[in-house]
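TA notes, week 10

Several of you asked for a full example with nothing omitted. So below is the full record: structure tokens for the whole chain, then the designed sequence directly under it. When grading your own attempts, check the secondary structure regions first.
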């Protein structure tokens, strides 16, 4: 990957990790506000959450999602996949994988982690995935998966329609 692509991909991944961190921490704050004590206890929890919870969640999100995200990002760049559905689905799968590692055999956290991962995938797509495989500013028609659809009409190639959103 060239420097421009690497900076675009790294920026998108960091933004996705920040979105997942924000979603998980807002959910924690919301659940504590519903079941917590009075305003003084809630304010103290918010201060502790901002000082310790946000940075810790961000670091853990980056550490746990780094390798699976790198594989998905590399695959998306190599195959020039620009569909938001690909990145949202991959984010949900990564979130479910991380949730299963942290909370084995518990369904509600898995759903929460899958939704947060889906949000992260959409944020990555907005930041970097919409131009995947575009190394030189042109349309990457020589991507390996596009070769599967060469010589066929766009209507008959379901792979192209699903993965590229075209």
């Amino acid at each position: 990957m060239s420097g421009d692509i690497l900076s675009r991909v790294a920026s998108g991944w960091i933004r996705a990790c920040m979105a997942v961190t924000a979603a998980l921490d807002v959910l924690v704050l919301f659940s504590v506000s519903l079941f917590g004590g009075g305003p003084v206890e809630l304010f103290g929890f918010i201060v502790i959450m901002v000082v310790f919870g946000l940075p810790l969640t961000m670091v853990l999100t980056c550490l746990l999602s780094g390798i699976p995200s790198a594989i998905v990002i590399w695959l998306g760049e190599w195959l020039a996949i620009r569909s938001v559905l690909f990145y949202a689905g991959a984010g949900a799968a990564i979130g479910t994988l991380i949730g299963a590692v942290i909370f084995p055999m518990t369904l509600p956290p898995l759903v929460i982690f899958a939704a947060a991962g889906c949000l992260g995938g959409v944020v990555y797509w907005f930041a970097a995935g919409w131009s995947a495989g575009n190394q030189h500013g042109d349309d990457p028609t020589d991507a390996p998966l596009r070769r599967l659809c060469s010589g066929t009409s766009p209507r008959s190639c379901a792979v192209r329609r699903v993965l590229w959103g075209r």
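The chain has a mean pLDDT of 82. Use that as a sanity check on your answer.
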